[in-house]
Amino acid sequence: MKALLLLLSLPTLAAAAPDPAALARGEALFHRPFDSGWSCATCHTADPRQPGRHTVTGRALLPLAPAVNPARFSDAAKVDKWFRRNCRDVLGRECSAQEKADLTAWLGSLPAETLP
Questions:
Q1: Rounded to whole angstroms, how far apart are CA atoms 23 and 103?
Q2: Residue 83: other Cβ atoms inside 10 A
């Protein structure tokens, strides 16, 4: 996980050679509804560069994409905590290391501009 945080903190290196397959898997994971009836986009919106809102608590959520919220993946303990909690809530299980890597690669590839 620390290597992943380092990669996200170096956008020029991360952007130099993105793995198109990993980016596609990360985006698909983010938008796919699971047995819970939720997807990541349920709370984080279809565009993770926008603020979201927790479906159950109504609590406002800061944007998920590092391009607009650079602090999002800066604390390894918080990243682990939120992956563990959110994956269990949404997927019904913990995310695999590959799923975490794909999702963070996709989020890290998003430019600061929002989608039209």
A1: 7
A2: 17
The domain covering 2-108 belongs, at the CATH homologous superfamily level, to: Cytochrome c-like domain (1.10.760.10)
3-state per-residue secondary structure call for the chain = CHHHHHHHHCHHHHHHCCCHHHHHHHHHHHHCCCCCCCCHHHHHCCCCCCCEECCCCCCEECCCCCCCCHHHHCCHHHHHHHHHHHHHHHHCCCCCHHHHHHHHHHHHHCCCCCCC
pLDDT beyond 90 at 78: yes
Residue 113 has which token pair? 């501009």
Binning pLDDT at 50, 70 and 90, where does residue 105 land?
Answer: very high
Cα separation of 82 and 78, whole Å?
A: 6
Domain ranges within the chain, ordered by starting residue: 2-108
User: What is the model's pTM?
Assistant: 0.81
